Amino acid sequence: MQRRLTAILAADMVGYSRLMAADEAGTLERLKAMRGELIAPNIAANGGRIVKLIGDGLLVVFDSVAGAVTAAAKIQKAVQQGEAAIPAQKRIAFRVGIHLGDVIVEGDDVYGEGVNLAARLEGVAPSGGICLSEDAWHQVHGKVDLAFDDLGERELKNIPGRHRVFAVNLDPARLSPEEFEALTGERLELPDKPSLAVLPFDNMSGDPEQEFFADGITEDILTTLSKVSDMVVIARNSTFAYKGRTRDVRQIGRELGVSHVLEGSVQKGGNRVRITAQLIDTRTGDHVWAERYDRTLDDIFAVQDEITREIVVSLSVRLTHGEEIRIWSSGFQSFEAWESLSRATTQYWRFTKEGNAEARRLARDALRIEPGNRWARILLGWARTVGVRYGWIHDRDAAVAEAESLATELIALDPADADAHALMSFLLLFHGRYDEAIAEGEKAIELAPSMASYHGSLAIALYYAGRYEDCLKRIRKAMRLSPFFPHFFLWLLAEGYRGTGQTQKALKVLEHYAARAPDTLTVQVRLARLHADMGNETAAHTAAETVLSIEPDFSAKRFVESVPFRDRSETEKFVAALRAAGLPE
What we know:
Blueprint: E1 2-13, H1 16-22, H2 24-45, E2 48-54, E3 57-62, H3 65-82, E4 94-106, E5 109-111, H4 113-124, E6 130-133, H5 134-140, E7 147-156, E8 159-169, H6 177-184, E9 195-198, E10 202-203, H7 211-225, E11 232-233, H8 236-239, H9 249-256, E12 260-269, E13 272-281, E14 287-296, H10 300-314, H11 321-327, H12 335-348, H13 353-369, H14 374-389, H15 396-413, H16 418-430, H17 434-447, H18 452-464, H19 468-481, H20 487-499, H21 503-516, H22 521-534, H23 537-550, H24 556-560, H25 568-581
Parallel strand pairs: 4-6, 9-11, 9-12, 10-12
Antiparallel strand pairs: 1-3, 1-4, 2-3, 4-5, 6-8, 7-8, 12-13, 13-14
């Protein structure tokens, strides 16, 4: 027998029997096309050889684990993007398992425990996912431009013992620097200012209920530093993508385009808390500064101030006089109010109807403890505003009026309150006061230059005002501050491209959005509109069908007029394109 150490890839199609029962000829035709046009070329390009096809699966050997993982990731991403326009129940997806092991070679075939282990790893992979053995992971960790999640030890069917399993992180929100550049036209190069990513602090308390506590400390430090004009600070959406995952600071530096990361841990017990923090240079992996704080809960705000001070000093950041006053003033008098607001913030960022309602309740709890607290008023104002925008709150007028009252009061108390100006900017759009909305948005960014969400909010105002070139510039800036950006950044980028006549770029962005969140109404509506404008009738009708499957009582006018355009003809053109795609007016 000839034995060889090799990288083995086992893949299997998800729901093959169900898809064949529903449409045998169509399923086979699509599967054959995928194998010939996508799967086989990627395998060959990365040093692989298909050993055999097994009905809906295949077995492949590679010269290296890096080649196997790279090919698998490219295939899975391409399948995900290509199937995004297909109704959910008809989509093709694969599971993949990869192992580095000893195999028996007999002619063109391979056998042995290594093959069996790869097949069992494929069985525990999620739909559209890739699982690796620990042996395979050791060969590629830090050597390929991909992130990995440690799934811990697992029992694998008919394989003795427990085996540590890793998964390739294929979250479509987590773009590689090359993918980021392809979508935005911007490179993730280091800025000419100190740049920082504040990673989620680890909860070391052994109590999952204390997760909000660690997140709250992270959020406070990040928000404070985002207001420093001489720094570039990456947004929460991007840094929290690393929560609970194995971290490689050099890779994080490449993925986010920053020179430094701050990481730490929090351990809370009774009235005592231990916080550790370390500032690391992503280019060398060296620690620039590290400290441990053992304090009572009453000192939590002082600890946060000390950490921000150390970062500013360590990175030689220059502060203006106004920044010195603003960034070292937490605004809290009691731990109870801070605790309620930290829980509220966690709920708010879930971006669900239930999370929004809970965020509002907890923000009001914080205000009952500290009636004048600005942070609680800001969060309540944003929760009310977002609730109206997403249709989660039905008393629209009352919600908008309360949010406007909160923003107005805060600006009157402190004209340099960036958060209040950003909230007011968004609210002014509801009344069609575009120039004022833009002015408020610009003021917010002047005061908090690294708040990606405020750049995004200003891009929204510029879009509805018909200033597409400016919208495009602003949303690109927002994306640079949050390379793993939220969904709504994508439709703004696409609309910026469309409004400036770059329809193919707009289509590419929307197709990526559809792969990332295929059942989201916003992207399918905009795909229907863009395809109709481009004369792609079949694609426009397919997108329209998806819209109606998501929202059967969809109304083009209701969707388009929820926030009005300054130019009424833009509204009419949007509605006409949706009607041409087959959607009810």
